[in-house]
Write a structure and sequence with these properties.
Layout lengths: L1 H4 L7 H13 L3 H23 L33 H36 L3 H15 L2 H11 L4 H9 L4 H15 L2 H8 L4 H37 L10 H10 L2 H4 L2 H34 L2
Helix pairs in contact: 3-4, 3-13, 4-5, 4-7, 4-8, 4-10, 4-13, 5-8, 6-7, 7-10, 8-10, 10-11, 10-13, 11-13
Length: 298
């Protein structure tokens, strides 16, 4: 009786078990914040055509004054062409999320496939795959993306291909190491001794174990892809007809909006990039933390 009333007394087993189970099953607070922010940005991106029709952003049709500061008619002001900055921001979210998610999917598919093959194969195939991975690890991804974007026709899918084809090597190295570790487990060795094929081992034992790791990497890769897309757009290598946050920053730089004091055209796209990248990073770190706790409990 006395032990339960004192602050330093023992906690009841039922409460302790429920609390620890809630911490294990619950979403980390930082990851929850990231998910909430991503949900808001995704909703704005999906609703952009209904909220801001595309024709209202046509520079040949706008009638609003140029470089107008924020007002009730234009919450974030207008750009040097008279277009609504809030509308450009909403449409830019569509491009940034599309490029970030699509290029990350491409990078994850390539990195997982090459990593699995390099970790499972032996002999000349393993050596060749390792040389390819090392090449893409050593050469900066942004340099390769710049080269591909300059050679190919400008467009959103060109940016997706350029980012996806140059950002898979890090995941491939991690997947290779994990594949070799999983295949060395006694349970997998017994399955192979019973005559299981390599495809069976990879599909039934290795790939399911890699799922959480690949998912955590994919979340972090989306944020990096958005930064690369913004960089390529700022350098003028994106689709000139597709509004994006990087393109907004490029136009602000070319028109001297920053030096002229038109902060409403410079800060929103920059803050949007920071917020979305931070959100994906929080979610990715949350997955990594959950993965570490799960592996530690085995």
């Amino acid at each position: 009786m006395g032990g339960e009333g004192r602050p330093g007394g023992r906690t009841r087993p039922g409460l302790r078990t429920a609390s620890s189970a809630g911490r294990r099953a619950g979403v980390p607070p930082n990851a929850a914040i990231g998910l909430g922010l991503l949900a808001c940005v995704t909703a704005i991106a999906l609703a952009a055509p209904a909220l801001v029709p595309a024709e209202t952003l046509d520079p040949t049709r706008v009638t609003a004054p140029v470089n107008q500061p924020p007002s009730w008619a234009h919450w974030l002001g207008t750009d040097p062409s008279g277009r609504d900055v809030a509308g450009l921001l909403a449409w830019g979210a569509r491009v940034s999320l599309l490029v970030g998610v699509a290029s990350s999917v491409l990078a994850v598919v390539l990195g997982t496939s090459v990593g699995l093959a390099a970790g499972h194969a032996r002999g000349w195939l393993e050596a060749a795959l390792l040389r390819v991975i090392d090449f893409f690890v050593v050469v900066p991804g942004l340099v390769l993306a710049l080269a591909l974007s300059a050679v190919l026709q400008p467009g959103v899918w060109t940016i997706v291909a350029a980012i996806g084809l140059t950002s898979w090597s890090t995941l491939a190295r991690v997947v290779r190491a994990q594949t070799m570790s999983i295949e060395a487990r006694p349970s997998v060795e017994r399955v192979r001794a019973l005559g299981a094929s390599g495809w069976h081992v990879l599909g039934r034992h290795v790939l399911p174990a890699l799922g959480p790791l690949v998912l955590a990497h994919a979340n972090l890769a989306v944020g990096m892809a958005i930064i690369m897309e913004s960089t390529l757009a700022f350098l003028g290598l994106s689709d000139p007809l597709a509004p994006s946050w990087g393109a907004m920053l490029r136009e602000a730089s070319e028109t001297g909006a920053a030096t002229a004091g038109f902060w409403w055209f410079v800060l929103p796209p920059g803050l949007a990039i920071v917020a979305v990248v931070l959100a994906f990073t929080l979610v990715g770190r949350g997955f990594e933390r959950s993965l570490t706790v799960g592996l530690g409990g085995r």
